[in-house]
């Protein structure tokens, strides 16, 4: 702690006392999007400073945040004070006796400790410690996971979660008997893995993919949807991860979802989006053999049939998937024409979109979908060897 004169310390104390009392008594919150600290820990644990044995690369150099010294707090207080009030306060401080001065200094030191805010890495460690507590209540377990769900969003925090050994803890929670615990755990893994090759690799090595794919078959639509989100995040933009996905019969999982009309629309959206993403990845890696399911007639028809959905978002994602599937080497134009009836589907969709364009609320979005529909139609006709000009 920096050294400043005793009188200045007390001047500082008087200036920030009221602010500090309010801050110390308010609800404990993290700097991360209004995150509440876990109530399973005592307040003293929340301001505990990381010891030498803790991973400095995960927690950072200043793990506790807040004011780093009295000098810093003094500068802040002076910059936020009225000059006349500052002078009056200084005169009051000068009238204190030596014993009163010492007592005020002790109070100021205690106040400094209360004002320290733990870093995100420290908050994650607290949440993980809670999850490792076998006697933790279901409510507190759920709260700890909710905290981690918010904390892992920044890519640096997701990487820190790996360094703290948190991935293994979260993957373990996928086996919890409570569906909400499983759902949030899958959600955390998906969010941490999103566009993060480092985390993707760690999660895959810990064997989470097979567990998540099993959860996709859950009777709970929420659990299935979050598990599928995690699966998609794990394999996106990674050829090695996709090979593991196929080895776990991921292609069959996709076929089962897109061909099942009773599946929740959220799962349909995610599945057809992943189909388009996988087909695009295949287009970018022409040296790799194309997966057989990309040319499966029944699978392709199921994807085309999704364009008849009343959900515009699902229709758009189906169009993107069809566009990419049409461009694969193994795709056959006549299969799309005769078996999948793609031409009829595109014409039917055109009429539907024309009607929707009359509604101002949908017009801009519908116009974008119509542009995509025209693009698919052009690719389809080119595949058939009949290049046509689509009216604008």
What would the keywords be for this entry?
single chain; mainly alpha; 22 helices; elongated; disordered N terminus
Helix/strand structural class: mainly alpha
How many strands in all?
Answer: 0
- Biggest sheet, in brief? none
Query: pLDDT under 50 segments (min length 5)?
Result: 1-7, 18-66
Strand content: under 5%
Helix-strand pattern: HHHHHHHHHHHHHHHHHHHHHH
Measured distance between first and last alpha carbons: 71 Å
Q: What is the average per-residue confidence, as pLDDT, rounded to a whole number?
A: 81
- Number of helices in the DSSP assignment: 22
Shape: elongated
CA gyration radius, whole angstroms? 29 Å
Give the % helix.
Answer: 55-70%
Description:
The chain is 67% helix and 0% strand. The chain has helices spanning 6-25, 43-46, 56-59, 70-79, 83-94, 98-115, 120-131, 138-151, 155-163, 166-173, 179-193, 197-205, 208-215, 221-235, 239-247, 250-258, 265-284, 297-305, 312-326, 333-339, 342-356, 363-384. The radius of gyration is 29 Å and the shape is elongated. It has 22 helices and no strands. By secondary structure, the chain is mostly helical. Helix 17 runs parallel beside helix 19 (312-326).
Brief rundown of the structure:
This protein is mainly α and 392 residues long. It is 67% helix and 0% strand.
Secondary structure layout:
Elements: H1 6-25, H2 43-46, H3 56-59, H4 70-79, H5 83-94, H6 98-115, H7 120-131, H8 138-151, H9 155-163, H10 166-173, H11 179-193, H12 197-205, H13 208-215, H14 221-235, H15 239-247, H16 250-258, H17 265-284, H18 297-305, H19 312-326, H20 333-339, H21 342-356, H22 363-384
